[in-house]
Amino acid sequence: MDNSVTPDSPAVDNYAWSAPVAVLVVGWLAAASALAWCALGSGDAPGRVLAGTAVLVLGGGALVGSMARPRLAASRSGVRVRGPLRGAQYGWSEVSRLRLVHTRRFGRDVPSLELEVHDQRLYVFGWLDLGADPRDVADILSTLRAAN
Questions:
Q1: What pTM was estimated for this model as a whole?
Q2: Cβ atoms of 15 and 80 closer than 8 Å
Q3: Structurally, how many domains does the chain consist of?
């Protein structure tokens, strides 16, 4: 089966990427566990502060990941980017730069996708945002952009 993207393929309008559901479920469960630890824990004040911080960080991350679905969508007409509170849609003519950036983290080469649009907004997507390898997403977006 050929999964390549061509301008004539009917699946071109059906691309969407977001955080993996399993990661969000783990985030919500970890936040709930930290909340239970905070609420039912002993009188250990530093432990409760640590658990409260974990609730805020894990719950906040899971909330943002849950609300911003899909994080990035693409079609023949352009891209749609979604954040926790609002989204934006841009035609391919409004996308001024699309590039893959490699950063060295913890001894590993980590790719991220940068999308810059005409109003000087820069969107940066990593694996956690997309639920896919940013290199694969960059290939698909480049093909869609070149088709226009």
A1: 0.77
A2: no
A3: 2
Residue 83: give the domain boundaries: 71-146
pLDDT in tens, 58-85: 999 999 999 988 999 999 999 999 988 8
pLDDT single digits (tens) 119-140: 889 999 999 999 999 999 999 9
- Confirm whether 123 is domain-assigned: yes
Same domain, 130 and 102: yes
